[in-house]
């Protein structure tokens, strides 16, 4: 184990404040299966004679999901607490890791964060706790995203197969056909600009995970990592594919064919609503996000459609993913086998899955939902009745092969943001940005005690 890295990980993720709402003694007479007890559950436990597994999660419909599990299960009950989303939860989990106590039995984690906690021995390999019984419920790519080497550290729930959302009205006005390749995308962008149209898309510095996905689509493999050799990691951020993608988007930005505004901001959403951008390169969760942000309502109702992600080589298409979460078992679980039963069973029943995708909360990775004719043939209201799952998202999800994430993903994303910002400003080329990124991240890895391959 790389002790220097463990110290660094704790320093990066530790919360500045005390752990809140995540530790207590036993409660309600429950036969708890963990040291964190069950006295502060958000939900009501109906079968109080059964052992209790504690869990943290932030899905908007988690109350329904937990209630469904508890109602249907005769072996274990779930005590659920929402301690915050994303970094808020991760900070509390890191505090619990450092203290050696206070973590739940099961925790919801974004897939790209799994290696960060796995390298600290904070997660349990659940492969020996019923993996074979559920293996066929998820694709090979979904399992790869929650694995480190041959070990499995989470149960996939939702993902983000990528596609190109576009404004039908703008495409029609400028006689644009949805581009099938990135070369066609650039040509269409030039045609629209020459005709006085809006920006064709947006190249933002604050979406490093998106940039990474687009580089992987071109053939990049940013990291290679095997936990059997924890002191060694492959860092390859300035290969030709990575440089090509940065050069491509840098060129589009320099020619003002795309905007460079940060995404997930009120200003950006306002631009999407007002037709400032003709396309939005994003993931399958985007319709739910955009709807929640007010897009697709009022005057822009029915104006959006979706097409497959443009390809570099249409003869050899590559599908990529942006985002996704899983349920992981923590090393503080006193009964890992029982906790794994919860991780495998949560958000796996038909009612929960259907509620999740119907309300655009998740894009399901469970094949029982992904292949459900009701889901596949859904006429998506945001896309004016288009069968977006059947035509775009399900094929992309099925073809996705998965990636290898690094144990210091957040540092990499932050470093990528810095270099893309410089590229947007024009102070570096795409190739130079890739070289600088390689130097930065490789140097950081060495500082943490890794041998960089």
From TrEMBL:
InterPro entries, per database record: Bact_solute-bd_prot1, SBP
Signal peptide start-end: 1-20
Domain of life of the organism encoding this protein: Bacteria
Keyword tags: Signal, Sugar transport, Transport
Pfam families the record matches: SBP_bac_1
SUPFAM superfamilies registered for this protein in UniProt: Periplasmic binding protein-like II
Name of the featured protein: Multiple sugar transport system substrate-binding protein
